[in-house]
């Protein structure tokens, strides 16, 4: 028999490698199975490379706009190959760090594709190639992949997903993006910054459709100001090649057929779980559609087999997968939960950044919760004026009466860093007065948090006077 483990993790992405390391820290004998590099989609083809390209492209745009600050430069240009090298250096450094952490925690790294086998002699089993490995517990963390569209022309060479776009050796002169979700608007930001003509086709009524309405409206306005052509309620019908080598995307908008052409088309229509080859015959756990069904501890219908991250649906974010992995390990070790996995912040790395956590005002009202809200427009924030940020805001949603924090929506510089303050407030049942006990340093973007909280009472110091909400 092959070596037996306390835990085998299939997938070394942000859910899998975190679970493996935490399991090892808890004294378990752990192996992780991965067919690709450590870090999964997030480190190799998702969060990290996208944000690196946003940083580089934003720097290029800022240099060209330096005249706003009295700083002028001539002949500013970019080298796309160098941008890609910088992106890859960043990725490689983080992947190398994960590999060292696994090694340092004595986690066995098994290279290959893992397949869950039916339990054998009371033990769970995984096959990797011709080898079979046994463990008391198994965590499925195979992640997700870009979703496709069932339309004509989807296989044309210049119709790509996010993986294919990363593989390009140049910035397209024109790019049509199918999907106005997080992936779509972040890539639109990158290539609009670099001077590409970008068109977004979104089937839903607004971009970032699951975000606060004001966020969607403001972002649409800002992207349009930067030259991005945006069409919502636009249902794509198919793709075809034109005589001059472009790809034509045909779509229906408000009952009329239209078309948009680009050197490349990016299909950013969401992601789907990687379940192909994950289960041997007789080893598939109970499913919830295409997703693996789990309980509150992320155990599947098979005893000792857990599933986390994008495999189980819900919020598809790296930090959510990591939290799932930690909770699964705590369950395996009989330890109490240390994190509130129901409260997950989300960020969009456009410019300005967007971050949300908890309920929006509309969601709270849909659930019959009476709320009070506070809002601060960041154009009155000193740090935002210094850096000439685009119009943004911070909004807080609190329960009426108790003033317990229920949610927050932010669209401003450093929003993805500052949202953690509201996340902490929600999971600890803090109220508006609780948060207002803290003094915000000046000048900082975070002063806007205090102003939004004060606005719950109509008492924001840097907002035009209006009647108190008490």
Question: Can you put this structure into words, describing what you see?
Answer:
- This protein is α/β, with parallel strands linked by helices.
- The protein folds into three domains: 4-146 and 272-332, FAD/NAD(P)-binding domain (3-Layer(bba) Sandwich), CATH 3.50.50.60; 159-269, FAD/NAD(P)-binding domain, CATH 3.50.50.60; 352-455, 2-Layer Sandwich (Enolase-like, domain 1), CATH 3.30.390.
- 30% of the residues lie in helices and 26% in strands.
- The protein contains 13 helices and 24 strands.
- It has helices at residues 16-25, 40-45, 47-64, 80-104, 162-166, 182-193, 213-225, 318-332, 361-366, 382-386, 415-427, 432-436, 447-455, and strands spanning 4-10, 30-34, 108-111, 114-120, 123-128, 131-140, 144-146, 159-160, 174-178, 197-201, 229-231, 234-241, 247-253, 256-262, 264-267, 271-273, 287-288, 291-292, 305-307, 346-348, 354-358, 371-377, 393-399, 405-411.
- Strands 1, 2, 3, 4, 5, 6 and 19 form a seven-stranded mixed sheet that branches.
- Strand 13 (247-253) and strand 14 (256-262) form a beta hairpin.
- The longest helix is centred in the N-terminal third of the chain and has 25 residues, at 80-104.
- The radius of gyration is 24 Å and the shape is globular.
- The termini are far apart.
- 45% of the residues are buried.
């Amino acid at each position: 028999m092959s070596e037996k483990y306390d835990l085998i993790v299939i997938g070394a992405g942000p859910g899998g490698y975190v679970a493996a390391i935490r399991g090892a820290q808890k004294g378990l004998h752990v192996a992780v199975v991965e067919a690709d590099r450590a870090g999964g989609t997030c480190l190799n083809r998702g969060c990290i490379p996208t944000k690196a390209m946003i940083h580089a492209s934003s720097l290029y745009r800022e240099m060209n706009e330096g005249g706003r600050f009295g700083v002028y430069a001539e002949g500013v240009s970019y080298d796309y190959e160098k941008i890609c090298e910088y992106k890859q250096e960043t990725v490689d450094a983080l992947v190398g760090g994960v590999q060292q952490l696994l090694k340092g925690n004595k986690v066995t790294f098994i290279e290959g594709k893992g397949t869950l086998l039916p339990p054998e002699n009371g033990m769970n089993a995984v096959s990797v190639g011709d080898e079979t490995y046994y463990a008391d517990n198994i965590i499925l963390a195979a992640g997700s992949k870009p979703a496709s569209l069932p339309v004509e022309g989807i296989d044309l060479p210049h119709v790509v997903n996010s993986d294919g776009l990363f593989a390009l050796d140049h910035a397209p002169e024109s790019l049509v993006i199918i999907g106005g979700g997080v992936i779509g608007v972040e890539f639109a930001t990158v290539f609009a910054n670099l001077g590409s003509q970008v068109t977004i086709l979104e089937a839903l009524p607004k971009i970032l459709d699951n975000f606060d309405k004001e966020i969607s409206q403001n972002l649409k306005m800002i992207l349009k100001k930067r030259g991005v052509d945006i069409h919502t309620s636009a249902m794509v019908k198919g793709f075809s090649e034109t005589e001059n080598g472009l790809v034509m995307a045909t779509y229906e908008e408000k009952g009329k057929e239209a078309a948009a052409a680009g050197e490349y088309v990016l299909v950013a229509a969401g992601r789907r779980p990687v379940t192909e080859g994950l289960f041997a015959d007789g080893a598939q756990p109970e499913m919830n559609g295409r997703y693996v069904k789990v309980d509150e501890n992320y155990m599947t219908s098979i005893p000792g087999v857990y599933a986390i991250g994008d495999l189980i649906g819900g919020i598809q974010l790296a930090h959510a997968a990591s939290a799932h992995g930690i909770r699964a390990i705590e369950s395996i070790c009989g330890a109490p939960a240390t994190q509130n996995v129901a409260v997950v912040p989300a960020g969009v790395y456009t410019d300005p950044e967007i971050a949300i956590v908890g309920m929006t005002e509309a969601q709270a009202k849909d659930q019959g919760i009476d709320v009070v809200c506070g809002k601060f427009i960041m154009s009155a924030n000193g740090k935002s004026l210094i850096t000439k940020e685009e119009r943004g805001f911070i909004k807080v949603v609190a329960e009426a009466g108790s003033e317990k924090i229920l949610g927050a929506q932010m669209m401003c510089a450093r929003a993805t860093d500052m949202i953690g303050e509201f996340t902490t407030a929600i999971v600890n049942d803090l109220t508006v007065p609780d948060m207002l006990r803290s003094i915000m340093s000046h000048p900082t973007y975070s002063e806007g948090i205090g102003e939004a909280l004060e606005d719950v009472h109509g008492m924001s110091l840097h907002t035009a006077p209006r009647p108190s909400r008490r």
